[in-house]
Each structure stands twice: as C-alpha cells, then as structure tokens.
Amino acid sequence: MLLGYLQKLNAARESRRAAVTVTELDTGRSTLFLEGDTTDETVASAVESALRTGKSGIVEIGDRKVFVNVYLPPPRIIVIGAVHISQALAGMAAIAGFDLTIIDPRSAFATPERFGETRLVAEWPEDALKDTPLDAYTALAAVTHDPKIDDFPLKAALEAGCFYVGALGSRKTHSARVERLVRLGVDENAIARIHAPIGLDIRASSPAEIAVAILADIIQALRTRDVNTGQRGVE
Q1: Is the N or the C terminus of the chain less surrounded, counting Cβ atoms within 10 Å?
Q2: Residues 50/40, Cβ–Cβ less than 8 Å
C-alpha cells in the first residue's frame, strides 16, 4: 500500500472516520474513499455496502473484479444509567462486538459488584463525556428516567451526530423530555431522531428483554445509517 494511503488511513483511524479502498485486481490500481467522500457511480454501491456492513471482499463491477477493503472504527455504546437494563445490555453488547461504557453519577449503582469488568464512570455525564467524546460511531442509550442525568447527554449525542440516540420512557414521558430539550435550544428536527420509547417494539417487558430490543435497534441503526458523500476519493 502506498505511503500516502497509510497516512490517510492512520489519520482516519485517529479521528474515528471510516475508510474504504477499492483495488482493481487486473491492474492493481487503487482508490481510497473516506466516509463522506463522493464515489463514482460504478463503485458507489460496493463502497456504501462495505461502509454499512463492515465486510471486505471481492466484488464484480461490470466486467471487472475489484477488492473492496473497509476500515471501520469500532462501534461503541454509551449507556447513561447503571440500572438492571444496563446489566443485561453490557453482556449482550460485548458478544455483538460493541465497546460499552456505563455512566452514572450514582456511585451506589455504578459498582464493579453489579457490572463486573464493564467500564463504569461514576460521574455526571457533563464531566464524563469530556473524556469519552461522542461521534458518528457511537450509540447513546439514556435509561435512568431522571432528567437531571439523561437530558445533557441526549443533547450532546444529537449535536455530535451519534448514529443512534435512544431514551427510556413512555410517550408521555418523552413529550415532557421534548419540551425540556427545546428549552435547552435543541432543534426539533434533531429531537425527532431520538428513539423513544427506546428499542425495537418486540413487546419487551423484563430488563433483559428490553436490553435485547435496545441492542437490536442499535444494530439496525448502524447497518442502515446514512453514508452519503461529499468529495471525490483519493487516487
């Protein structure tokens, strides 16, 4: 691989930005695309598929074969609230390949005894998120039911462009949440991105079932997220 490509890939990795290389197998000619780049129509479908699935492989485009190699930042989940749902979600997320962090200022809840080796931050989200910045490869799930704890990270997640933002609570609870976020200056179109009630509607009732619904919703959001583009790839 060319040194210039390696430098761009390393920079993309540092900034948690996805990248794709498309290499023509007959000529060895490669093109590098960063997520947000414009692809020409001939390879656009292959590049977008790779960005969504995270899978590399040989693809036939017309009468030629190309190798599509994708580099995705590790997706992560930030959970606001060290509750029973979080306990179940932590184990499931690890199996599904997500890094997961739980933030809760209530130190009586955020304990290793309850969560084992899960990364816990017993601080207010306003402080904790300074060291755990949100980005487009982060999902945020707010599950405390406490506006004093949940509202700030929801606002921050929408501003950061997290691929998933969800909040626990009934529709009535969410209506009050929407009013609070509007007063905090959050745009109503952005607020509409919040998955509330959180999780896919599978009629979940127990904490473990709700965790399944949340994780499924997060995976669906990750695999169907917008990968629209802006500038041409680098040849």
Answers
A1: C
A2: no
Both structure tokens of 23: 């290499």
Q: How confident is the model at residue 6 (pLDDT cuts 50, 70, 90)?
A: confident
State yes or no: pLDDT of 185 exceeds 50: yes
Task: Give the model confidence (pLDDT) of 76-115 as tens digits.
Answer: 999 999 999 999 999 999 999 999 999 999 999 999 999 9
- Domains of the chain, first to last: 3-73 (no CATH), 76-223 (3.40.50.720)
What residues have CB less than 8 Å from 16, skipping those under 6 apart? 73, 135, 136, 137
Please tell me whether the peptide bond between 197 and the residue prior to it is cis, using omega within 30 degrees of 0. Answer: yes
Alpha helices in the chain (DSSP H): 3-14, 41-53, 84-96, 112-115, 125-131, 147-160, 171-183, 188-191, 207-223
> Lowest-confidence range among 2-6, 42-46, 161-165?
2-6
* pLDDT the model gives residue 212: 98
Q: Which residue, 145, 165, 156, is CA-closest to 186? A: 156
How close are the terminal C-alpha atoms of the chain, in Å? Answer: 12
CA distance 141 to 164: 8
List the beta bridge partners of residue 37: 231
- On the question of pLDDT at 230 being above 80, the answer is no
Contact (Cβ atoms closer than 8 angstroms) between residue 221 and residue 164: yes
SS (H, E, C) 75-88: CEEEEECCCHHHHH
Alpha carbon 32 to chain centroid, angstroms: 23
Helix (H) or strand (E) holding 64: strand 64-71
